[in-house]
Amino acid sequence: MNKSFAKKIGLTFAGLGLAFGLAACGGDDDGDTTDGDTADDGGDDAAAGEVELTLWAWPGFGLQDLASEYEENNPGITINIQEADYGDVHQNLITALAAGSGAPDISAVDEGYLDRMKENSQHFYNLYDFGAADLQDNYLDWKWQQANNVEGDFMIGIPTDVGPMVMAYRMDLFEEAGLPTDPDEVAELMSTWEDYIEVGKQLNDATGVKMFNTISDLYLAILEQGEIQYFDEDGNFVGDVSEQNKKAWDLAVSAKDISMNINRHTTEWGAALAAGDFATVFLPPWMLQNIKNDAPDTAGQWNITFMPEGSGNFGGSFLTLPKQGENAEAAYDFITWVMAPEQQLQIFENSGPFPSTPAVYDEPSIQELSDEFFTRPDLGAIYAEAAEQIVAGIKGPMHDPISQLMQDALGTVEDGTDPDQAWESAVDEAKRQIAR
Amino acid sequence: MASDQTIQPAQPKRPKKRYSQKVNDRRSGYLFVSPFFILFGIFGVFPLLFTAYLSFHRWNILGTREFVGFQNYSLLFTDDPLFWKALGNTISIWLISTIPQLIAALIIAFLLNQAFLKGKAIFRLGIFMPNVTSVVAVAIVFSAMFGTQYGIINYVLSLFGIDPIHWRGSYFGTHVAISTMVMWRWVGYNSIIYLAGLQSISKDLYEAATIDGANKIQQLISITIPLLKPIIIFTVLQSTIGGLQIFAEPMLFGVGGNYQGLTVTLYLYEEAFTRFSFGYAAAIAWLLFFIIILFSLVNVFLTKKIKST
């Protein structure tokens, strides 16, 4: 899933909806008046037999086969999966919620938009009202907590996939630089980020090849390992003093010389991968395919190991029930079935995203997932282990825009701006944007 | 009127002649034009007024609206360097794309209008083609061409011994790259408009000039350009309106770390749809509205000057 790029294109088209969105917002006050009795309606409709559930998602969830299976086992229920680009799904959902009509029964929401939705939870059903508490043990604890409000009494969505980060590296380039190529030895060699940068410099000196694509990606990988990133538990901005943010920034700045200065998911990124111009990539499972697509000739030259200082999460979503949906109970039944451990495993086996249900991590199809492209015979096992290491960071609705500011600032550092000056202006701009 | 009818129920013919033919004509006239005004009211006037209303609020679209008075405007004027940077970028990109574009369009139109040219239709079609190409496709292809390390433009430059230009990392690079996309799409459109203007100029003038011994360049400067003045003014106005609304190209190309590619409309859009500060975005929209009025007034002033010379 080439998210950021798809997002850009999606947003371009979504922009055309500006006038319509604003026009539609005038009546948002009357949208909520009927909400009180919709839950009951859901039950009645289900009893009556014919229920059509619409589900909004972007490509890559791998739900279609399971939806058909569910339809067979539950006569009278039709699941209508409507796919759109990543950006469009969220934009459309927000517009529909604000307009008071048009939202689906079920909508996928990515973690990047989740806090925005949680902040406005009046638009969603609380899954605890349907008995979701019983399911808690099925899911990774950090992932479950992400879907909860601070008080822990509102649950907005059922977890879908997770994106545990690991490190892919080019064995041939490591060998050329006289470095170890065995995954365990590599992980040991780079147990801290300082070590990683040190190794990168050695590799660069020996081969002329850079260590990674851009310092803002290194920054993100480090940032995601901390709990407090830009906001504290109470939602106060602490980005200018947060340990993890400062650490990630300083390390990234110090690694400028071993970076290609190319952004992920650009044409240039693909070209550099294919040419073998940088030696490591931090990536979640769903990004493996991007490397295969962009650099098919590098098959067998890659191997995969842990990132320094633990894993981190990149992407992953939730299935939510907007209050405008009329068949909430039927929808709840479907999403809890389709995201139950067994079904998540099935999705993964059909080359879908990585499950958020640790109970299936010991299954052979995960433990023995191997990939000749990435050499490792136990690719799934390392992802499973990484997934359990993840510490979920506290995000907040403004996390993504601020993250973008910091990444942009690092981009200017890479182009020659003074790092202290870049930090200052990024933090100042972050404060301004939060104040609006 | 209604009370008249109740007082005089004995005159059944009166209501039929209530309106004269003239009034009826007027009524149907309004009826015929009403669809435009209804649609304009819904999609034009209402959003305009609602935006004005929003600009005095803090609102994230899903939550409640909080009245903040002139705070959005005062922040915009006193504490938002990014907005003014975006305005500067917009004007710079507009100038870099418009001036060479109109000159090139004029020259192309002049060439296309030459009697010796065969297969005119093919050339005209070819020059207009970029305008009907999807802007997204254009931006993607140009973004690949303007790649710093693997882009074809830097490769060609390297053949001439020129160092690679960091297109996404410098003001110059980003502005030129975005302007090039705008130019590529619109030069053909303007050429066709100029061509239409050229064809309305009588051939006799050129023949007379040729007999008097004027060469092609003298003809261009002394006959074509003066007679094309109204058309040129039209294209300048069009380009001004379009230039202040450049959006898709910088969005897809990337604005760069220094926000050197950020234009005002893109800034407005990001404020609303990625940061969900709808109130603030509405304030930007109104400020942009006043800026465009200002530009239009300058245009009108200049146009009058040119016309009177």
UniProtKB/TrEMBL annotation, chain A:
InterPro entries: Bact_solute-bd_prot1, SBP. Residues 1-23 form the signal peptide. Transmembrane segments: none annotated. Keywords: Signal. It comes from Evansella caseinilytica. This is Cellobiose transport system substrate-binding protein.
UniProtKB/TrEMBL annotation, chain B:
It is a multi-pass membrane protein. The chain crosses the membrane at residues 30-56, 91-112, 132-152, 172-196, 227-248, 278-302. It is found in: Cell membrane. The keyword Cell membrane applies. Residues 1-21 are annotated as: Disordered. Residues 87-299 form the ABC transmembrane type-1 domain. GO terms for biological process: transmembrane transport. The keyword Transmembrane helix applies. Keywords: Cell membrane, Membrane, Transmembrane, Transmembrane helix, Transport. One of its GO terms (cellular component) is plasma membrane. PANTHER family: ABC TRANSPORTER PERMEASE PROTEIN, INNER MEMBRANE ABC TRANSPORTER PERMEASE PROTEIN YCJO. Belongs to the binding-protein-dependent transport system permease family. This is Cellobiose transport system permease protein.
